Amino acid sequence: MFFSKVNEIEKMMKEYTVIIENCFTNYMSIMTEIVNEQNQEQYSGFMVTMKQLESEADKKRHALIRQLLEGGLVLDSRKSLMHVIEGLDGVADLAEEIVREFYLTHMPIETATGHGVLQMNQVIHKQLLHLIETVVAVVTTYDLESLFSLLTTIEQLETEVDVIQQRAIKEIYNQELSLAEKMQQRVLIDKVAKMADDIEDVSDLIEIIMMTRKV
Amino acid sequence: MLNPIFLSGALLGWGLGANDAANIFGTAVYTKVISYRRAVILIALFAMLGAWLEGGEGLSQLGDYAYLSGVTSGSIAFFVMLAAGVTVIAMTMLKLPVSTSQAVLGAILGSGVFYGRADFSATTKFFGAWVLTPIGGGVIAFILYYLIVILLEKKIQGFKFFQVFVRLGYYVAGIFGAYALGANNVANVTAIYTGQIGLMSKELALLIGGISIALGALTFSKPVMSTVGEKIVPMSPVSGFVVVLAAAITVYIYARIGIPVSTSQAVVGAIIGVGFHLGIKTINLIMLRNIMIGWIGTPTLAGVISFILANYHIV
Questions:
Q1: Cβ proximity of B303 and B109 under 8 Å
Q2: DSSP conformation letters of B106-118
Q3: Is CB count within 10 Å lower at the N or C end of chain A?
Q4: How high is the ipTM of this complex?
Q5: Among A69, A73, A143, whose Cβ lies nearest the Cβ of B163?
Q6: What DSSP designation does B279 have?
Q7: pTM
């Protein structure tokens, strides 16, 4: 009786993180196809897939928020979880937005951009897995001090993404492309890198939760 | 059939229940730890229980004091309680914090002055209790918070257990707060009709007093609960119920001693006590100034109104 609402929130949070991870891994596969094949006929199918996954994430997010509003958690925990959920949602939204951009604009991908995007995706995936581990810990454990090294790793991975991003942009600007084409490639690289920033922002929130739980 | 002179006391009790419910469960309801419906039912039940089981000491002390101060007939009792009630309403409308205990005592004194029987020396024990109430609330909150922090750090490792612990804490604090409210404040409502004046038996006084407080909480506590709950937002998850528990313990101690005190002022003291732990500046000079105004202003205003009304009632 006492644990039912908290148990439900724990279960839903775990399900939500699975959906977010699924969304990202699908995005990664799609981006690999796009970079390697650049078959524009596939883009609408990719967009539909991403749209479905992102909608699934949204549905779960809304259900989670409704569950949080039922009570069951103290005010501080509710507030902090809300911010974490919104942060994770940002990652799914961005993944969907990137794929949709290809569907709408049919933009070509230069080799440097493609390499950079795929490399960044690999690192971001590691980041996301670490983040999901910390998010699950937030709803299962009270003392989060043991997560400190994971949170540090997430930060380090974000720095790695920055390095890849800068290298890719430099390579693009060294190529014989028009300024508009260079800008177009750069926008894509920046969007992908933003996912790493957003994941790092969520890890910062978890750091704050860790601090506030230090009674 | 009940004597209509008890109406003024019952009205005061109703107002007391409506206002003080917020001190007990306001934060818990505002932060959705407990639903409003469940909170008021718990307050009503446990306030009545507290009044019935442990309201007797306050009833005797205040009842005797009132009689010795000149409240020797039903009509005098009616107007004294009316003066206290008008004071509470006036201070509430002026948005000043008001203590029912201070209003009742002031009204008794005012009537006593009119009849030349006011005993100011006996008021020192009541005044001392008012001053010590926020101090007591602060000290108890400080100690309680420290003990709970140690318990939490050593024993509670899981997220789930922490959530349940805090929610249970709000329930325990609220239930005990309601019990202490009934035990301590029933005297304010019906003491004046009991004892040597003999208008009401002790049992009936405890029953009517408890019921009027309960009815106030059940029927009109929602607006105050929302306002107070919003203002006393907990500084940390644990502080919310520690404040209420510390205030409840303070009020209960005075219930055992037999002196009605202010729950609101005990809460203010408790907030300051917890604030010391958290390094948060919770000492608000305006709040302290208002409390001090209450110590002097409330009984004075009630005394003046009671004195004026004494000119009009039939002995």
A1: yes
A2: HHHHHHHHHTT--
A3: N
A4: 0.71
A5: A73
A6: T
A7: 0.81
